[in-house]
Design brief:
It is a single chain. The protein is mostly helical. The chain has one domain (about 5-85). It has helices at about 5-10, 15-20, 25-40, 55-85, 105-120. α2 (about 15-20) crosses α3 (about 25-40) and α3 (about 25-40) runs parallel beside α4. The two termini are about 50 Å apart.
Length: about 120
């Protein structure tokens, strides 16, 4: 679907009000029922984007509305996945081994060793 087609489908919002006004007559009622059936056949379609006078027009706009829905859903899923990946740490770092036997050090030496390790990161 091109951007022009998406814009054409999206601009159908003003036509929706006109189509709903036409549903007062018997032909309008049949058209509304047909639109409802097309929407049931395409549950992922964005209802506001499904427009048309004939079955073919309704089916085409329903396919386009479904494609728009899928694009939006995919972009939201990707954004959520990126956000989750950025906010969750990759895992616990491995244990670090130190050459100094801390238990054998004096209290002052233990403090100095701790400060040295903090500086190293």
């Amino acid at each position: 679907m091109t951007d022009g087609e998406a814009n054409a489908v999206a601009s159908g919002g003003s036509e929706l009000a006109g189509a709903q006004a036409e549903t007062e007559g018997p032909v309008g009622a049949e058209r509304a029922r047909l639109r409802e059936l097309v929407l049931r056949a395409h549950p992922e379609a964005i209802p506001e984007l499904v427009q048309g006078e004939t079955l073919e027009e309704l089916e085409t706009s329903a396919r386009l509305a479904t494609e728009v829905y899928r694009r939006i859903a995919d972009s939201v899923r990707e954004a959520v996945a990126r956000e989750a990946a950025a906010s969750v740490p990759a895992g616990q770092p491995g244990r670090q081994t130190y050459l100094v036997n801390i238990e054998a050090l004096s209290p002052a030496a233990k403090i100095a060793e701790g400060l040295r390790r903090v500086k190293r990161g």
